């Protein structure tokens, strides 16, 4: 076989199994909402978590210990992450479209006003503003980590990434508290549906991002990253910045303008 600068991956069952397990999650969510049975959702979530962990282990092994991720491979991985983030932008664009479609021309069924009649919105400058500050600060700390890695400052990188993970967890804690205090639910007109779908999926992405950064923190402890090879961290950092930007749009459109 001729030598190439690209990594010809071996046969792996994880993409196919991961697709099936991820498919079980939305189907299981529908079953749980309509029938009250969370079994399929739990099965899909556990299977996805296990498969992702094993798949990431294989990728880390190929990149760090086997040296398969040369310059061409790293460039391809960066392009893949970029395209993935573009697909995520399209995903959230649908939620914003639904929200503005309903709010700019409220239907008579919701009182021809926005927010709908009977909906008491959350205070704009309380917990939502604190959440915004927390996520913006986490964006600063993950950038601090990036510069520390490129400068070869291992201790500073660990400190910055630890702070980022802590802020991400704190954001999720605040979001849970906010959900506990809302006077409306997912079933309360189009406002409740659009609010909980948009902010809920964003919270899910924050959870995934926090797990992603936690894996990078663990790899940082084991010295897997250096000045020239840290594509795994770059992917996590780009994803985290995307989550930050989405929250800014959510805060301005739903919490501020929409209230």
From TrEMBL:
It comes from the Eukaryota. It is a multi-pass membrane protein. One of its GO terms (cellular component) is mitochondrion. It holds the Pfam family COX3. The keyword Translocase applies. SUPFAM superfamilies: Cytochrome c oxidase subunit III-like. Its main location: membrane. Keywords: Membrane, Mitochondrion, Translocase, Transmembrane, Transmembrane helix. GO terms for biological process: mitochondrial electron transport, cytochrome c to oxygen. The keyword 4Fe-4S does not apply. Residues 2-259 form the Heme-copper oxidase subunit III family profile domain. One of its GO terms (molecular function) is cytochrome-c oxidase activity. The chain crosses the membrane at residues 12-33, 39-56, 77-100, 125-145, 157-176, 196-221, 233-257. It is found in: Membrane. Component of the cytochrome c oxidase, the last enzyme in the mitochondrial electron transport chain which drives oxidative phosphorylation. The respiratory chain contains 3 multisubunit complexes succinate dehydrogenase (complex II, CII), ubiquinol-cytochrome c oxidoreductase (cytochrome b-c1 complex, complex III, CIII) and cytochrome c oxidase (complex IV, CIV), that cooperate to transfer electrons derived from NADH and succinate to molecular oxygen, creating an electrochemical gradient over the inner membrane that drives transmembrane transport and the ATP synthase. Belongs to the cytochrome c oxidase subunit 3 family. This is Cytochrome c oxidase subunit 3.
């Amino acid at each position: 076989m001729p030598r190439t600068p690209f990594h010809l991956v071996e046969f792996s069952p994880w993409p196919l199994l991961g697709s099936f397990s991820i498919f079980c999650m939305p189907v299981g969510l529908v079953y749980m909402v309509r029938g009250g049975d969370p079994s399929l959702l739990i099965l899909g979530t556990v299977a996805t978590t296990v498969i992702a962990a094993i798949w990431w282990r294989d990728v880390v092994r190929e990149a760090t210990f086997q040296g398969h991720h040369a310059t061409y491979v790293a460039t391809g991985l960066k392009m893949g992450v970029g395209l993935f983030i573009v697909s995520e932008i399209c995903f959230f664009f649908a939620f914003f479209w639904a929200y503005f479609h309903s709010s700019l021309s409220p239907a008579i069924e919701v009182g021809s006003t926005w927010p709908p009649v009977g909906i008491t919105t959350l205070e704009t400058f309380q917990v939502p503003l604190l959440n915004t500050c927390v996520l913006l600060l986490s964006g600063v700390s993950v950038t601090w980590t990036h510069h520390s890695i490129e400068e070869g400052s291992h201790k500073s990188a660990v400190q910055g990434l630890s702070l980022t993970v802590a802020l991400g967890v704190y954001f999720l804690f605040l979001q849970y508290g906010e959900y506990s205090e809302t006077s409306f639910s997912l079933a309360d007109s189009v406002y409740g549906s659009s609010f909980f779908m948009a902010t809920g999926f964003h919270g899910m992405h924050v959870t995934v991002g926090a797990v992603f950064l936690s894996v990078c923190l663990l790899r940082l402890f084991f010295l897997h990253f250096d000045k020239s090879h840290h594509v795994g961290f770059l992917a996590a950092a780009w994803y985290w910045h995307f989550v930050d930007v989405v929250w800014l749009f959510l805060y301005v459109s739903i919490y501020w303008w929409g209230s």
